[in-house]
Amino acid sequence: MVPIVGAMFVAGRFAPQGRFRSASYDFAQAMIVTGAYTSILKYSVQRTRPDGSNSLSFPSGHTSSAFSLAAVANRHYGWKVGVPAYVLASGIGLSRIEKDKHYLSDVLAGATLGIIVGRTVARVDGERPAKKRLVSVGPATDPHGQGVGLGLSASW
Length: 156
What we know:
Layout: H1 2-14, H2 19-45, H3 61-77, H4 79-98, H5 104-121, E1 134-141, E2 148-155
Antiparallel strand pairs: 1-2
């Protein structure tokens, strides 16, 4: 995937302003950010692969990269490109399980990470997506790490 994204990035630098130029930058950024987060998690968690070859199973890097690219493609080109991209990314994830390189949880974590990164970095025509009103609830702890509860966040 890296050579393809690299070639697209170089081609995008020579393209006039527009969708392809913007998408090529976002594809490259998604690959870099996804690779960094995936590596940090792999070396932090150190989960042994199903085949026992090493301790870098969680999360699946192939899957996280594929899903980040699919998310960027979906953002720039819509569902007609996004759906086939997500199907291809799913096939990559399933092949990693079939080759005994990852557990299902590794692939699901990689897919989740990839989608989050891809949706975060994607900009259409260089513009950030319109800000939406958002309310979220998530786990929280006190500053000393002694209590556990729920945190509520709202933005508009």
